[in-house]
Amino acid sequence: MDSSSDEKPIALVIPWFGKQQTGGAEQQAYQLARYFVEAGIALEVLTTCSQSFHKSWEEDYFSPGLSVEEGIKIRRFPLGPRRSERFNQAVGALLSIPEEELRPGISPLAQREEAIYAQEGINAPALLSYIAEQEACYRWFIFLPYLFPLIQQGAALVRAKALLQPCLHKECYAYLHATAELFAQSRHLLFNSRGEYQLARSLYGGWIDEKSTVVGEGIAFVGEEEPEEDSPAYNFPYVLYLGKKCAEKNVPLLIAAFDLLHKDATSELRLVLAGALMLPRKLQRSYVLDLAYVQEGEKTRLLRWCRALLMPSTNESFSRVIYEAWFAGRPVVVHGECLATRGALADSGNAGWHASSPEHWAEVLGIIAALPEEELASLGARGKGYAEHSASWPEVVARYGELFTRLEHENLSMASKHEAALVLLDGVVNPSFFHQQEVANIRKHLRTSGKELVYVQRDSSSQQEDLATANLAMDNPEVCLLYWGDEAWRDGLALLERAQGRSFWRLEGEHSEMLIGESRRFSQLLVRSEGKKKQLLAAGLEKDQLIVLPTFITTAQIPGEALSLPLFKRENGCAVNLLLAEDYRGLPQVEALVAGFRQHWGRRVRLLVAEPCTELFLTQVLLADLLLLIEQEKSQDIIPLSCLYYGVPLLWLRDKEYDCFFAEAAVIAEGKSTAEILQIAQPLVEDSPRRKTAQEKGYAALQEYNVGAQLQLWRKVINF
After folding, report:
1. Do 452 and 414 touch, CB atoms closer than 8 A?
2. Among 343, 338, 336, 341, which residue's Cα sits nearest to residue 324?
3. Cis status, amide bond into 145, omega within 30 of 0
4. Nearest Cα to 524, choosing from 502, 508, 539?
5. How far apart are the first and last CA of the chain?
6. Coil, strand or helix: which one is 618?
7. Closest Cα to residue 336, out of 361, 317, 366?
8. Rounded CA separation 411/398 (Å)
9. Between 255 and 663, where is the model more confident?
């Protein structure tokens, strides 16, 4: 694939770069750059002066500036200051959280800790400045891998040109809010495997579909050259593991499986491990051969004469070594819970096996030990055919080229400040925190889709300036106008007269005479629920004019310590925390209910009280085991939806129109007495498994009601 000499280069942005780098993402970046250059695609690598991930992040090893290595242009930038001890503390807190407590939408770090993680990671201010200043000089920016703040900050600077190659694993870093933001703001997502894409979809939602491509990854050199000694490596049958010998790669699982294999039968099969680190003494066995890091020739020899390659890791985005095994004509065994490797196994036509538990691995190892070489070779040949097609660098690079061309034919132009896709007129008087959050979400996610918004807030310091900008946009029939709130606002309604495009009214509270009179000036009215729609139909509005558009909400913007799971564990203790979503003082019926709860459960239940639409309420949500929702006027859908995002089951004392979201995660108890409510609440309070089931079902019910799904719904209705 040739490119003209005056074509803008692709920028490949990565913290560490070089032929000698050992990390998977770094190896991928180097080979990608090498084959881009070979294919005639102009490319520059933008990286730091740090020697490697394993060396200092504060001291420059390489000289800053432009250099060329094997035809690859590398532009290095000096490292900036950082406080490594604070960063290490934040990472320590992150790594200490058990995997079963990680859940999408909830950051595993408190806001303060995540800020430290972002500020004190590898830092190269000159690199970020260069990206911002030289954006126009580059065709696209490919950022990898996802987990470093430097990558996240760089992608935010050039989001219209940012192509994220995340190299995503199912690990704690993937649950940080900054990671979700990175996926949202990147122009396109490039995945190494179908399994990696499926993992990203499960973490961030189906909205990534429209901006995702599985480009794959290539494998170089393996099998291209004969090893120095092409004879059996050992005089005993063995299976091979290549990689770091650590718990993160699930190596103890292999040892446990071999213990089972050799416990009940005399097996000649041995395990050969080659790679960084040595086995701890407690894992050393007579039937396990622990080798150090081996050179390419010896690795190829080990692969050619093994009976199978083992890859027990559950955290892979591609797994180079299983393709190396297939290129060498050998079958593989992968972990059944790793989407990337199990997906590759399925795509290969099952050129090997998958297993999960130690017992299952031991069973598969027994099969491998017993199979004739002809059958192993047949499976390996199947894998080789698949690898030659899917992991060939020329074919992978061609897929990149096709993607670049397709993206450049799409409408990538960012609307200027005076060319809005949407004008939002905020006529709400005394807006609640939740209302402000929803408006902020619309603004942010509109921008991530490559559009701009003019926001005119009533009685703000910039109101007149923003109104002037909105006036200019009103002449464009492609621009939509969204009026927010039930209060009549003269300047906002006057602007409506000039609108050439469609206009929408987002209704907040109860209908009024003004609403009935003014409603026909708008193309459509947007309401939050079917119940509100029924009220307005009864008031005389036309059915075709009303559209149900639920609240636009994301937990990513909830402030303070509310997102800290460690805080939840420290504070929760043994009590069941019941959160009362109401300032109940002075309300006799609510005071009677609270007294009944206290009398019935005593100290077994800790009562938390916070008025909705306050930061205190949001902080208390995470401490709650059960939410008691009473008040009718302020109990908008955004409150229970927020709670269900956190897995808090609801005891709701009124009927609502959102049952489809709640499934069995909410108990609706409209018009019940205190005694009846206590009886209804009993299973959720007393039965921990029942409460956990309610939490899981509520959370599962909201998986499709994620930010991306909401954004797609808003796009469909308002057509921005």
Report:
1. yes
2. 341
3. yes
4. 502
5. 36
6. helix
7. 361
8. 22
9. 255
CA dist 88 and 91 (Å) reads 5
Q: Are 495 and 481 in contact (CB under 8 A)?
A: yes
Grade residue 298 by pLDDT with cuts at 50, 70 and 90.
confident
Q: Which of 370, 373, 366, 376 is nearest to 257 (CA)?
A: 366
* CB of 294 closer than 8 Å to CB of 272: no
> Residue 247, exposed/middle/buried by CB under 10 A (0-12, 13-18, 19+)?
exposed
Q: What 3-state class would DSSP assign to 127?
A: helix
For residues 433 and 636, give the distance between their C-alpha atoms in angstroms, rounded to a whole number.
Answer: 12
Sheet holding 503-506, edge to edge: 453-457, 422-426, 480-484, 503-506, 524-527, 546-548
| Cα radius of gyration rounded to whole Å, the chain | 29
Which contiguous run of DSSP H or E holds residue 518? helix 513-518
For helices 320-327 and 373-390, angle between their N-to-C axes, nearest 10 degrees: 120
Answer yes or no: is pLDDT of 80 > 90.
yes
From the list 575, 609, 612, 603, the residue with the least C-alpha distance to 590 is 609
The DSSP annotation for 630-648 comes to --SSS--THHHHHHHHTT-
Q: Supply the pTM of this predicted model.
A: 0.70
Q: Where would I find the beta strands (DSSP E) of 275-427?
A: 288-291, 309-311, 332-335, 352-355, 422-426
Query: Mind listing the pLDDT tens digit for each residue in 362-402?
Result: 999 999 999 999 999 999 999 999 998 888 899 899 999 99
Name the residue among 79, 108, 76 with its Cα closest to residue 93.
108
Q: What are φ and ψ of residue 241, in 5° steps?
A: -120, 130
The secondary structure of 287-300 as a DSSP string is TEEEE----HHHHH
What is the phi/psi pair of residue 96, to 5°? Answer: -80, -10
Q: Please report which confidence band the pLDDT of residue 474 belongs to, taking 50, 70 and 90 as the band edges.
A: confident
What pLDDT sits at residue 671?
A: 64
Q: Render pLDDT for 150-204 as a digit per residue (tens, 0 to 9).
A: 999 999 999 889 999 999 988 899 988 889 888 888 889 999 988 899 888 888 7
pLDDT band at 64 (very low <50, low <70, confident <90, very high): very high
Under 8 Å CB-to-CB from 461, ≥6 apart: which residues? none
Chain mean position to CA 172:
11
Q: According to DSSP H, which parts of 17-139 are helical? A: 24-38, 84-95, 111-119, 125-133
3-state secondary structure 409-439: HCCCCCCCCCCCCEEEEECCCCCCHHHHHHH
